[in-house]
Amino acid sequence: MEVNTELIEKILKKWQYRKDFLIEILQDIQDEYHYLPRLVLMEISRYLEIPLNQIYEVATYYKAFSLEPKGKFQISICKGTACHVRGAATVQGALERELGIKLGETDKNLEFTLEAVRCLGCCGLAPVITINQDVFGKVEANEIPRIIEKYRKGQTITASTKVTSGGSRP
Ligand code: FES
Q1: Is residue 46 part of a domain?
Q2: DSSP line for 50-95
Q3: Residue nearest to atom 1 of ligand 1 (CA)
Q4: Is 120 in the pocket of ligand 1 (CB under 6 A)?
Q5: Which of 68, 75, 131, 144 is the most exposed place for a label (fewest CB within 10 A)?
Q6: Based on the domain organization, do 53 and 104 belong to the same domain?
Q7: Is residue 141 situated within a structural domain?
Q8: Is the CB of 128 under 6 A from ligand 1?
Q9: What pLDDT score does 66 carry?
Q10: Do residues 120 and 88 share a domain?
Q11: Each residue's pLDDT tens digit, 107-118
Q12: Same domain, 28 and 52
C-alpha cells in the first residue's frame, strides 16, 4: 500500500497539526481508507511527534476505528431478540450468499464488510440491516440481491425499500 502524503497533510492541516485533535484526525483517515493503515499511522506519528504506541492505544480504544481493511459499504445485521425472532438468520444467510463472505468478513474487492450488531433501537422494523448510514427495516431475504446490486452499481436506493431515520416503510 502506498501512503498518500498529500492526503495525510491535507487532513493534518485541517486539524492544524494539533495533537489534541488526534481522534478527529484518525476519523478522517478512517473515512478515507475505511480503516487505519499502519503505514499511515506511522506517518501521523512522525508528523505529530506522538509515539506510535500511543496512537494505537487510541485506535484500539474506540470501537469506531478498525485496524483491519473494511469494505466501502459496511453492512450491519441486527442480531437483537426482535430481529432474531423475525428472521435475521435467514437475512444473514441471504447476505452471505450474495456477498460470498461470512459474518465478520470483508470481500476481496474491499467493497462490503458484513458484521453483526446488537439491537439497533428500531425493533418495530425487525428484521433490520444497515448499510453505512442507510437503514432497511422489515427486510426479506429475497430483497437482498436487489439491495446489494444497487450499491454495487452506486445507485440511490428508493424510498420503497429504505427506511430513513424517523420514517417507516410504505
Ligand atoms: S432487535 Fe433488531 S432493532 Fe431491536
Answers
A1: yes
A2: --HHHHHHHHHHSTT--SS---SEEEEEE-SHHHHHTTHHHHHHHH
A3: 80
A4: yes
A5: 68
A6: no
A7: yes
A8: yes
A9: 92
A10: yes
A11: 999 999 999 999
A12: yes
What is the 118 CA–ligand 1 centroid distance (Å)? Answer: 7
Which range of residues forms the domain containing residue 24?
A: 5-61
Whole-number Å distance, alpha carbon 129 to ligand 1 midpoint, is: 9
- Cell 503505514 belongs to 39
Distance 89 CA to ligand 1 centre (A): 13
Q: Give the cell for residue 27.
A: 476519523
pLDDT digits (tens, 9 = 90+) for 58-73: 999 998 899 999 999 9
The count of structural domains within the chain is 2
> How many A from CA of 114 to the centre of ligand 1?
17
Better pLDDT: 132 or 160:
132
Q: Among residues 77, 85, 133, which one has the least CA distance to residue 101?
A: 77
